[in-house]
Amino acid sequence: MATMHPGVIVFDKSEAERKVFTALDRALPNAYHALHHVALLKMGVGGRAVDDEIDFVIVHPELGVMVLEVKGGLVSYDPATGRWSSSGTNIRDPFDQATDAKYGLARWLSAQPGWRAEWGPFGHAVIFPDGVYHGAPMPKVDRRIVFDADDLADRSRLRVRLENAFSLWKGAAKLGTVGCAFVVSALDHAVGLKRRPGEEIEGPDREIIQLSPQQFNVLNAFMQVPRASISGPAGAGKTLMAVEATRRLAAQGKQTLLVCFNKELASHLVAEYQRSVGDSATIKTYSQLCVDRARGVGFRLPALPWDRRAWDVVHASLDKTATMAPGQFDAIVVDEGQDFAESWWLPLVALLRDSDKDRLYIFYDSNQRLFKRPPGMPDGLIDLFIWENWRNTHQIFKEVMQHYQGHAITPMGPKNGVAVERHAATAGFLSTELGRVLQRIIIEGKTSSRDIVVLTGGAVDKSRCLGRCGRFNLCLNPTGPNDVRLTNVYRFKGLDSKVVIVVETDPTDTAKMYVASSRARALLVMIATVPKPGA
Question: What is the pTM of this model?
Fold first, then answer.
């Protein structure tokens, strides 16, 4: 049986075409492709588009392409008027119609990318399924290109006659299997709508994180008490709540400190929210707070540059400087409180003007404890918990929860996200694989390079991804159009990005994997480093 396109007749308004469809399906072997009802848009006089339709296109790798025009009814030609008719109704000359369709199809195919000039040949024929053809030969009609009801009634005869019709157009041109597949796929292929490049991550990301009713309730509740600790998973909106609490306190005229440990997070908070929270609010890192306080009261700090041991001295200095001058804040809001050592809380609280009555609110997630500092919280806090995740798509949330321990969390982010991508590369080919991923997301997916962050689990200056990765430049502070931000998990904690690519991170390091994966809002890509084969 022939390979029919479609497999069963769909356009069945013409009983004549139904007869031909059935006959071709039964008579021709698999090597033949018979395409029914091929619509063709041709360009007419003056560039005007003209709709056309080809009843059947027969394609064979050895024989070529044949256009079949079907004319039902009792068809006749009147030489006195030069008109053709079917059962008394005037119709267009079927042989002219078949010829025009043949050349129109040939022109359209030759304009398609990948078409080869040596492919062919192209022929045409006319089928009269409702009667038997008789009459003397016509100058433009060879009996080999005329089929009638007798031909359709006999399978073997139809196949032989079709082969003879193809032979009339035989020449140097030939399709072969490649050309045959090209013609068939060009005329019969799936068509549909898909999201524009980048929309699969752009769409979910537009569902911007906002405070939910539950978060507002928690916010209103803890602001009724002077001291509270608010815990919740990554993506719960804790930073938004910390900013809103700061804004409310500053609006009441209270000198308010919003403090965190991560320098990049503090810079982000200043850039995004300093204007909205007002002049009564101060946003700093704990380290900068220690330095500024020491310099403000004349306390001597270690000589620059500071290594880790010197920074320990700087952080410990607040224990002394906090009591050297009166407190300067009416309220303190701490974001990412799990980064704070237990010994930091007493001197921090001492910066309040009334350390017993002034406000202290601490937001934290114990799963994000990357720094090996002794944990602990100040006394007298009312503990509250947020159980919703709003930052991540459901697909990313599922990955994040593999590295989470604690209360049950409800995913509230977009459900229509894309799957987490997983790639693997040896250390020597890591930058090559990353370059391929960036090429697909930025160039093919039309995503801005500023919406992408590459997170390494180690030091940035030792990363194999630093510098050139394909056509992109990985750097800490991107400025050029092909620059992509490369930072590490420690620096980026508390922040997020539309697209996050995680590299050089130990999959067994639960805290690091939790922090890294939860930074992604719409697309998370994991590139694992694997050993060389045979190593």
Answer: 0.65
